[in-house]
Here is the input.
Amino acid sequence: MGDTLDLSSAAQKALREFYADRDRQQTQFAELKAQPKGDDDDVARLAPITMEAFKEDWGVSQFWYDDQTATTLAEQLLAGADERSCIAVISAPSVFVKMRHLLAAGRSRDTSPTIWLFECDRRFDVLGGFCYYDFNRPLQLPGETICEMLGSGGGGGGVERKVMLMLICHAAHFKGKCDRIICDPPFLSENCQTKTAVTVQWLAQPDSSPRRRNVDDDSSTLVSGADAGSVTSEADQPRVRIITCTGATMTDVITARLYRRLGVRTTTFRPRHGNALSNEFRCFANFECADWTWEE
Here is the structure.
């Protein structure tokens, strides 16, 4: 006979609490999934959802921001946004959840922007606006109903043609639609950063470069790279706000190669994580604001 493992009363209590918490979360997710979802969730549906309901999976590099960081980033994405705006959140679900809370607390649905979460963790499907996203397939994005019809037999043609049309349609649905984008690529590798940047540039509305007003003729001229440092007033903000948060080791990849055309630079803001992640993190953006300036 094998040895019986006897747990102390404290260990047994901790184990019971663990299973009770797991069961509570599973029940909450089941109830949320059973509710009808529209394009935007109402306040009652949003209220119980916090990042505490989504345990981090360090195996897939999940590290949630602390509340202050999530709030700062969410507020900057929402600044100046209205019902015509479309905000893309790529691999940064804590910012997405915070934006939902801010919108639920302070705006009517008529003035709220459209918000999309591009994320590989399907647990977030309980939230409206979830789009499954794998950075290894940077342009394989969800599409409109017509795309689903093609995949189920509509449109005629062979299987290969249908698959090709679906992929094209899915990606085209989001092309050039977003005027505010944040991404936090899950891995500190050039491969992951590059593929995520492909998605960012595909989603961004045309002409995402910072602009500077010419006071002589009241016209605007494009500015990029180092010249973008003169952009400070609200009127001079870029048409598309782009933020990317990642490890400091990726600085040259971000600013000198992937996002240079979009005027993205290192900012003074330092993202923090709830679990005190040891990696030195940076926030890069193509605009300055009350929460950060560009580093010299």
Strands lie at 86-90, 114-119, 130-132, 180-183, 211-214, 219-222, 241-247, 265-266, 281-285.
